[in-house]
Design goal:
elongated; six-stranded mixed β-sheet; alpha+beta; two-stranded antiparallel ribbon; 11 helices; 411 residues; 8 strands; disordered N terminus
């Protein structure tokens, strides 16, 4: 094997780092609740300022605080109970905006002076649900706001018989009636653009994922697996966590192709890739290096568990039966080694590759361990145990000092 395309792509983040880093635009549940609370507090702050100026009675402030607290508690209970998961719109943006508009209309009824702040905060409430509420429902909310405003104006005139207040509120109603439909229309345009960008982003992610995968086998391809090895080597140098690498080669693959044909050989490769991927952890990285040769990277893994995983893969591949093959089975030769901090990727890879070569020279269908050769480290002889379950402990012997380049075979 050669190892000459390792610099063809930039370094990718490890899976652990990707899990820790959230994409821009994505928020945690706590952040979403804080946004809602902050928006409510802004409206409350304005009403409190009006109260401080003597324009709003204390009972109105208390009623507003009660409505806000009750609304937050209601939705908290709904989300905690999981009732929202049964609905089409799981985030409940429509009822949230509906209750917000209802609360502002109630405050407007209690204190006519708050009509000054109703319109701008009504637009804030509508904008809050713009990406989740369908356009028809957004128009319905707009109609509800205008109709509710008109109803409050009528109640004010019926209770107070104040012609000047009526004229002022009717002017506000006229402005609101003209602005709300236009705002909802523009929201629809932004919503459409959001959906287009969302679909384009998903397509780009799918393309990126396809570019990382082997089209025949579904595992990672050569370009990705080589770059991932470089990234994991750098991470091991920076953090000191262990790192292991296995090079896997299907034995006598040319004979398999001759016996089954190329389509049959492809099916053997697919079956092997499936077995391998079923026996590795989510954080392990398995990919096709070329032809019938594969790499298996074990981030944060010491030599013993890496060896036992390789032995489990070897045993399960051997247990498969194949019609049309002279011996009815397929075997693999595997070389595995552990990274020595400070060595190059090429040196790391070469030791695993050498172990694979020794496995083939030693009779194939076995796992060969190439031990690190750093001075001062103890040599560990590893013998994989029968696969009686994931919790089985390997047999370990710790001999005398290191024998540079000492190798151990299994199988």
């Amino acid at each position: 094997m050669d190892f000459d395309d390792s610099a063809s792509e930039g370094i990718r983040l490890s899976r652990r780092e990707l899990d820790m880093r959230r994409l821009p635009g994505q928020r945690t549940t706590l952040q979403k609740w804080l946004i809602v609370v902050c928006l409510l507090c802004l409206y409350l702050m304005v009403v409190v300022v009006f109260h401080a100026l003597g324009m709003v009675q204390p009972r109105t402030v208390y009623a507003l605080v009660a409505m806000m607290g009750g609304g937050l508690l209601l939705f908290l209970l709904i989300f905690r109970s999981g009732v929202n998961r049964r609905l089409r719109e799981k985030r409940l943006k429509f009822p949230i905006v509906f209750l917000a508009l209802t609360g502002m209309l109630a405050v407007f009824y209690l204190e006519p002076v708050t009509q000054i702040v109703l319109a701008p905060f009504a637009f804030v409430a509508l904008a809050y649900g713009m990406y989740r509420i369908r356009r028809a429902l957004a128009y319905l909310l707009g109609f509800y706001l205008i109709a509710g405003y008109a109803a409050v104006v009528a109640l004010h005139y019926w209770e107070q018989q104040n012609a000047a207040l009526l004229r002022l509120e009717l002017m506000h109603l006229l402005a609101l009636g003209a602005a709300v439909p236009a705002f909802v229309f523009l929201i629809g345009k932004v919503q459409l653009l959001h959906h287009i960008l969302h679909r384009a982003n998903r397509k780009i992610k799918n393309i990126q994922e396809d570019a990382q995968r082997d089209t025949l086998l579904g595992c990672y391809n050569r370009r990705y697996i080589v770059t991932a090895l470089e990234e994991q080597q750098q991470l091991a140098d920076e953090t000191g966590i262990p790192l292991c690498l296995a090079v896997i080669d299907l034995d006598h693959f040319k004979r398999i192709n001759d016996a089954l044909g190329h389509l049959g050989g492809d099916e053997v490769l697919r079956a092997f890739a499936r077995v391998a991927q079923e026996n590795v952890r989510a954080e392990d990285i398995f990919g096709r290096y070329g032809g019938e040769e594969f790499l298996l990277i074990f981030p944060g893994t010491a030599l013993l568990p890496a060896l036992n995983t390789c032995e489990r893969i070897r045993a399960q591949v051997e247990a498969q039966t194949w019609k049309g093959l002279p011996r009815g089975r397929v075997t693999v030769s595997i070389g595995v080694t552990q990274y020595v901090p400070g060595e190059s990727v090429l040196e790391f890879f070469s030791r695993a590759d050498t172990a694979t070569y020794l496995a083939k020279e030693g009779g194939r269908n076995q796992v060969v361990v190439e031990e690190p050769t750093r001075k001062g480290d103890p040599s560990v002889t590893v013998q994989p145990v029968p696969d009686d379950g994931e919790d089985a402990e390997p047999a370990v012997t710790v001999p005398t000092p290191l024998h540079p380049g000492r190798r151990y075979a299994s199988g």
